[in-house]
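note to self: the first set is below, dont mix up w the second
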Amino acid sequence: MQLGFYFDQTRCIGCHTCVVACKDWNDLPAGLVSWRRVDTREQGKFPDVTVSHISLSCNHCRQPKCVEVCPEDAIGKREEDGIVFIEIEKCTGCRICEGACPYGAIQFRPDDGAPAEKCNFCVDRLANDEAPVCVSACPMRALDFGDLDELSRRPDVTTWTDHLPDSRETTASLVFKPRVMSRLKR
């Protein structure tokens, strides 16, 4: 089984509650790193303007480039659920993984030699049969998680949106219900 995230772009209002909940749950300092982020895109020209949001974290890819390039074998992928993890004690802070991740999911604090860090899919919550905190916190229920094969069978889903780089190389464990951009009529 491969766990993944589902994101319903039609429901997201860009409130950043998922980001704040993640920072709070994982005791992350303000401003330095965000294991989850919300990207906003504005498109069009007045009067035909549209705005869309997407909530992103580590995509726990099926073929994670970060795992391939880590010279210390500090990044791995769990066989039972496909979660990509970092063994902090093995990480030397070389930052090679940072450049390998096309999604900007791996981050470093500004300290010299700080280890890599990223979303861990809230494995502590999963162990207690709880959803990842970002999923639980979303007031619009735009985020969900589960077996990626099951999530992929939901109506109107896709594996790509213009907010993301091409994921054919890494095969992100993420599916979307995209927001269809409609033009306003005068």
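second set (the one i keep forgetting abt)
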Amino acid sequence: MPKIIFLSGSPRLKGNTMQVMEACVEVAKGEGVDAELISLHNKNIRSCIACYKCSELGRCSLDDGLNGIIEKIKAAEGLIVGGPVYYGTARGDLMAAIQRIAMVAGKNGRWLSWKVGGPIAVARRGGLSASYQEMLMFYFISEMVVPGSTYWNIVFGREPGDALKDLEGMETVKRFTVNVATLIKKLQCQ
């Protein structure tokens, strides 16, 4: 059964980004795709140090828990990243994580190529489009396939639970999840 990894960049286990990702995991499972939600909560993800040892080691040289996540992503067919927006941009440790994931994949056979997925940005008000675009760069430089939806994958919410009340945003990200699952299944039939 194909699998999608959902990576939440939220430091809050019950915050809006986690709640949005949990809803999308249920959608993926409803589409007949295995889904696993991984949180960066309580992890201290460091930025890439450009040592390029990943090309020799087959993994990142930094030992902060990201290598286990990288192995799960490598084994999956899809990756959806949920990014909370802080001060107008995607949260720093999430960006550090996806940059390192891209580096490891790029230096080891470009294994992200043709995986399906995309980002979801969650914020109270501002910075959603910029953060969404910032995270998209990871997908495009990694030769990943990003299906569309009925709008951009952005959800509004301030207090925990508010994002689930953004009906248009939730409809958009759920449709996006359906499209990711559908495309993965279609690609497997080739």
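remember for set 2: The mean pLDDT is 96.
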